[in-house]
Structure formats: structure tokens, C-alpha cells
Design brief:
Blueprint lengths: L2 E10 L4 E9 L2 E6 L9 E4 L4 E4 L1 E6 L4 E2 L2 E2 L4 H10 L2 E9 L6 H12 L6 E7 L8 H9 L4 E5 L10 H14 L2 E5 L3 H13 L6 H5 L3 H18 L3 E3 L5 H12 L4 E5 L1 H5 L2 H4 L21 H9 L5 E2 L32 H11 L5 H15 L17 E11 L18 E11 L2 E5 L2 E2 L20
Parallel strand pairs: 1-4, 1-5, 6-9, 9-10, 10-11, 11-12, 12-13, 13-14, 14-15
Antiparallel strand pairs: 1-2, 2-3, 5-16, 7-8, 16-17, 17-18, 18-19
This protein binds N-(aminocarbonyl)-beta-alanine and zinc ion (2 copies).
């Protein structure tokens, strides 16, 4: 087994920044300390001027996902390759239980999607669409397979939405099996009424996707989700939180000592309704759910990240090509496949706008993009930290490398970038996954199929 010594780097964790060397034995970190002799390793890398970060963990991606009559444009090969280039070494994607079928069928299907393709390690959440009483033990079966979290939808009626009874039963089951419920929190029934009215009034352009989904519909659902979790006596995790209104619900719950967790995404931090209001059909590029909000929400979300009212930044990467996929909704915004690309740019955007603009420290950056998702989703300390015994998922981060994000140069298999023209400082130079160099000087050199399925531990969200 070969060994690797990375010398002279600055090792950044969620709570410290130290000058030290890092010795890797095969796939695992063996030692982290200053002054490890070069003679101990087969390969020695000089990381002077670079930061050593634990590989990024994107806990919310949708690769090869069927939606609205099409499939997300990145599969497990193209999506995880783009992730690696951006410094992400682990994703947690979503398998979807089809109504009337077993979760096991969905799990097998998603394992097949990833097999021979994944370039980095991956876990799976299970989206529950159907939970008869006889199906509750299927959740326990999934937990035994390392699916330590489930997503439930309070939106998308007749597609993915489940009722409160189903949500409450699922929450109660996690009290027994230790899994974590992730909630897509928007009041789908109310939104549907508003949407039908808009369509009846001939309002079919992309912007109406955003204008028919009020922040109150998000806040109400967040409040209800947390209240149901409290009644069930379990934690809950709100996905893709987008607005101040919704954030207030999480903050108030946490202030009362409730185990409510939430993530936001770069698009809500950096893009706004005002940015897309006059884009006409091009606005379809920004049709995702929850939608973009008024710009005034952004400083509140940054503040939430700084103060730990929000614990994680993930991407909700769900790309659809503008030319031939978003076009499905040319005459009706409800037919535009929901989702946007971002798996490649999360660390770049968060480093530049978070650390670079003084919104939070380098340590908090590491916590938000790696350590906290590892802890919350049952992967810590295998992932999410550079310490002896952990997987050698290491990013050599160049904090002063500059580049401009563009669809012309990105690796994601999608014909536009939500962040086109954003100039960022800080980028992954080299990336190791389980000790193997998979990105060298920004170029992917790994092998599709090398990524392994991660059996995650169900810890009931009890992570701090
Ligand atoms: O618009 C989005 N977010 N698409 C992906 C599905 C989801 O709700 O996360
Ligand atoms: Zn969602
Ligand atoms: Zn999503």
C-alpha cells in the first residue's frame, strides 16, 4: 500500500487552523502533526501556500433524476466528476420511492445508476412517497442498508407530496430507528390554488413560478414540520431553506432548544428575484423550488449561517438543459422541470462570498461545507475532518486562485450556469479521494466507478 506525505500546508478544520504535515497510508489518514519526516512516505507533496481542507460533502444532489417528463442532465459520472473538480469528495443523492412500490426497489435502482459511474463516494437518502402502516418497517430496512435519512415533501401535490399523517408516522418511526427526516417544507396545497389562479389569468411565464410561491407558504410548512417533529420527539432537517420568513421559524425553534436543523444553498445566498424579474423566458434557468426570493432575504441567510441558525450549505444540484429540457415549459411555467445546476461551484462561491467578504471564518466555511453535513448525516469522523483514522479525502485549496464561472468552461453537463460571470477567488487545486489523486491542478484524473456507496449511521441527528 502506498503512502503519501503532504508537507507545509495549513490544515483547516471546523475549530482550528494549524501548520502541520499530513501522512496518508493507503486510503486512510495516518498522522497529522508538524515535522513528519519525508522518509516516511513513498510520495511527498509540497503544499506551501495551500490550505488542506476535508473534502466537501454535498448532502443534497439529484443526479439522473426523473422529473416532469425528463431526467436531470448530470448522471452519476458527469455530476460526481464536476463535484470533484470543485472540491467535493462525497455526495448524498436522493433515491425516489415510486408510489405503490417498495423503497427497496428504489434503492436497487439508484445503486444501479451509480454503479460503474460514481467518481467519488456517495450516500443515498430515500424520498418517501407512500407509507402504509405495513411499510413503516421498510424504513428500518433502509436504515440497515445505510440510508440514514429520508426526504418527505410537503409540496408538489399529486406527485411527491405526502399528508401530515404520513409525515408524523415517518417522524415517529425515526424515534425507533434513529434516522433523520429531511423536509421539503412548502405548503403545496395552498401554492396549488395560487398556481391554478395564475394560469387561469394567463400568467404562464417563468417568473410566475416564483410569484406563486410566497415565503409564508414556506414558513408555515417549516413551522408545521418542526411542530410535528417536536410531537414525535425527534429532530428534523429542513432542506433548501430560502427565506428570512422560514429562517425565523428555525431560529425560534432552536432558541427553544428544539433539534431543528436546516440547510440553504448558494442560489438563495447569491441570486434574487430582482435578478431574474426582467429575464423573460430565460428566467426558466432559475425555476427551482423553493424559488428565488427578494434580495432582502440574502443578508438574513448569511447571518443565519454565521450564527448557526443554519448548519449546512448544499447545492440541490438538479440540472436541466435550457435548450431542450427547460423548454418543456415554454407555454406554461408549471411544466418547466424544477432545478438548477451548482455541484461544481459550491466551495468556490462560499469561499469567495463567505470567507472573502467577511461573512464567516475559514473554519466556519469548513464546517458548513464538510464537517456539519458529515455529522448530521452519519458520516463523521470517516468523512468531514482531516484526522488520524479518517478517510483521506483531502482538498488542496488555493485561496488566491481566481477564475470566472462560466458554462463555457464548467464540467457539469448542462448548457448554462446560474452563476455565469461570477468572479471568484479560491479554488481546489488537487483533490484526493481515499488517498487517490483524482483532481490534479484542476483537471479530473480519476476513474468513473471508483466511488463507493457509503453506509451511513443513523444517529438521530444528535451530533453536537
Ligand atoms: O427545484 C428543485 N429543488 N428540484 C429538485 C427537487 C427538490 O425539491 O429538491
Ligand atoms: Zn425539495
Ligand atoms: Zn432537491
Amino acid at each position: 500500500m502506498s503512502s503519501l506525505l503532504i508537507q507545509n500546508g495549513t490544515i483547516v478544520s471546523a475549530d482550528s487552523t494549524v501548520q502541520a504535515d499530513l501522512l496518508v497510508d493507503g486510503a486512510i489518514i495516518k498522522e497529522v502533526r508538524a515535522g513528519i519526516p519525508a522518509s516516511t512516505a513513498d510520495t511527498v507533496v509540497d503544499a506551501r501556500g495551500l490550505l488542506l481542507l476535508p473534502g466537501g460533502i454535498d448532502a443534497h444532489t439529484h443526479l439522473d433524476m426523473p422529473f416532469g417528463g425528463t431526467t436531470s442532465a448530470d448522471d452519476f459520472e458527469t455530476g460526481t466528476r464536476a463535484a470533484a473538480i470543485g472540491g467535493t469528495t462525497t455526495i448524498v443523492d436522493f433515491a425516489i420511492q415510486a408510489r405503490g412500490t417498495k423503497m427497496r426497489t428504489a434503492l436497487d435502482m439508484w445503486w444501479k445508476k451509480a454503479e460503474g459511474k460514481a467518481c467519488i463516494d456517495y450516500g443515498l437518502h430515500m424520498i418517501v412517497t407512500d407509507l402504509p402502516d405495513a411499510g413503516l418497517e421498510d424504513m428500518d430496512d433502509m436504515v440497515r442498508e445505510g440510508v440514514a435519512s429520508f426526504k418527505l415533501f410537503m409540496a408538489y401535490p399529486n406527485m411527491l407530496m405526502v399528508d401530515d399523517a404520513t409525515i408524523f408516522k415517518a417522524l415517529r418511526q425515526t424515534a425507533k430507528n434513529g434516522a433523520l427526516i429531511c423536509m421539503h417544507a412548502e405548503n403545496g396545497s395552498v401554492i396549488d390554488v395560487i398556481v391554478q389562479q395564475a394560469l387561469a389569468e394567463g400568467k404562464t411565464a417563468p417568473i410566475y413560478h416564483a410569484l406563486t410561491r410566497p415565503t409564508r407558504a414556506e414558513a408555515e410548512a417549516v413551522h408545521r414540520a418542526i411542530a410535528m417533529a417536536e410531537m414525535a420527539g425527534v429532530p428534523v432537517y429542513i432542506v433548501h431553506l430560502s427565506s428570512e420568513d422560514a429562517l425565523n421559524q428555525v431560529r425560534e425553534a432552536r432558541d427553544c432548544g428544539l433539534p431543528a436543523f436546516a440547510e440553504t444553498c448558494p442560489q438563495y445566498l447569491l441570486l434574487s428575484l430582482e435578478d431574474v424579474a426582467d429575464k423573460g423566458w430565460e428566467g426558466a434557468k432559475y425555476v427551482f423550488t423553493p424559488p428565488l426570493r427578494e434580495r432582502s432575504n440574502q443578508p438574513k441567510l448569511w447571518d443565519g449561517l454565521r450564527k448557526d441558525h443554519l448548519q449546512v450549505v448544499s447545492t440541490d444540484h438538479c440540472p436541466f438543459c435550457f435548450e431542450d429540457q427547460k423548454a418543456l415549459g415554454k407555454d406554461n411555467f408549471t411544466k418547466i422541470p424544477n432545478g438548477g445546476p451548482g455541484i461544481e461551484n459550491r466551495l468556490q462561491l462560499l469561499h469567495h462570498h463567505g470567507v472573502g467578504q467577511g461573512n464567516f471564518s475559514l473554519n466556519r466555511f469548513v464546517e458548513l461545507v464538510s464537517t456539519a453535513p458529515a455529522r448530521i448525516f452519519g458520516m463523521y469522523p470517516k468523512k468531514g475532518v482531516l484526522a488520524a483514522g479518517s478517510d483521506a479525502d483531502i482538498v488542496l485549496w488555493d485561496p488566491i486562485a481566481e477564475h470566472t464561472i462560466s458554462a463555457k468552461t464548467h464540467a457539469m453537463r448542462v448548457d448554462y450556469s446560474m452563476f455565469e460571470g461570477f468572479h471568484v477567488r479560491g479554488n481546489a487545486r488537487d483533490v484526493y479521494s481515499r488517498g487517490e489523486l483524482i483532481v490534479s491542478k484542476g483537471k479530473f484524473i480519476g476513474r468513473p466507478g471508483r466511488g463507493q456507496y457509503l453506509r451511513r449511521e443513523a444517529r438521530g441527528g444528535a451530533w453536537k
